[in-house]
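Re: beginner question about structure tokens

> Can someone show what the tokenized structure looks like for a real chain? I only ever see the sequence side.

Sure, here's an example I had lying around. Input first:
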Amino acid sequence: MDIEFVRSRFIKHFDGTTGSVYASPGRINLIGEHTDYNGGFVFPGAVDKGMIAEIKPNGKDKVCAYSIDLKDYVEFGLNEEDAPKASWARYIFGVCREMIKRGVDVKGFNTAFAGDVPLGAGMSSSAALESTYAFALNDLFGDNKIDKFELAKVGQATEHNYCGVKCGIMDQFASVFGKEGSLIRLDCRSLEYQYFPFKPEGYRLVLVDSVVKHELASSAYNKRRQSCENVVAAIKKTHPEVEFLRDCNMEMLNAVKGEVSEEDYMRAEYVIEEIQRVLDVCDALEKGDYETVGQKMYETHHGMSKLYEVSCEELDFLNDIAFDCGVTGSRVMGGGFGGCTINLVKNELYETFITTAKERFKEKFGRSPKVYDVVISDGSRKLC
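And the corresponding structure tokens:
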């Protein structure tokens, strides 16, 4: 994303002067899917694609915002009743309101923003947008600076209270806390976190986007969450200390096999194994063992496809192609039912893999997948 491009649009749409420029990244999650609401670990990292916004206080009591990508201009006040109708503007409005609730004296400002996070690819463009404005407003108007954790919570609260999405904290956390060359293991129960080195020399990280999103995602998500809670309730009868599947092991699960449905058992088996896989990947990264990382990614895909049943034909097909091409690791990334696979690919296999994936996918499904190379990068920051 080009600062000069954003600046040129800001100058054109406002008074010809310039403000301050801020950026926040989108994110990937290397491993740890459907573990967050089970009290487990996730393992995200910020990427080199994100949002850039230029912002300048305007001395008024309203925000004048221009979306460069949508070519859309909106003005809104800073009181609760001033919520704009445009969905993209509600993100900015929500951040303003959440910062005000936390004691930041937000005033009116002019802003223009643009992004290069691919929409619908599971890289959290909305979190990047929220984090950009939370970081910027804290810098511009925050006398008592809010810490980074609270900035991530501002983004999450914006989704909950102004955009109708009951998301977890991972996306905003990764966007704010991102660090070049490192992934972040976040404990979703305690919110403790630790950086782990991710410098895969000789490998590339690439997303292959199936360009499909199946509609049953939200209802299926709720059903799987219920399955996990059913198993926890059964185990809790003999292990009252258990709160989440994170507290369980396979021995506990097998002890209640006759008390839960086959479906619930499968869902819990996947989650218990996935929580352990995140820890195994962390250990492997500390040793620079990317082959084990890749093996665990394939295990995750198999679990999401066969046990949690949140994959789809297109994603399984892309995963099979990766395996056939000798790709080190591949799995569905995100909640499932569409979106991307994330792939850890040796440099010398990259061209063959991408060419094969595009050709075979188009032959089978009649369209080409999109390909995004990603590099692990820094989190929210001021550019100038």
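Each token stands for a local structural state, so reading them left to right follows the chain. The chain has two domains: 3-198, 203-374.
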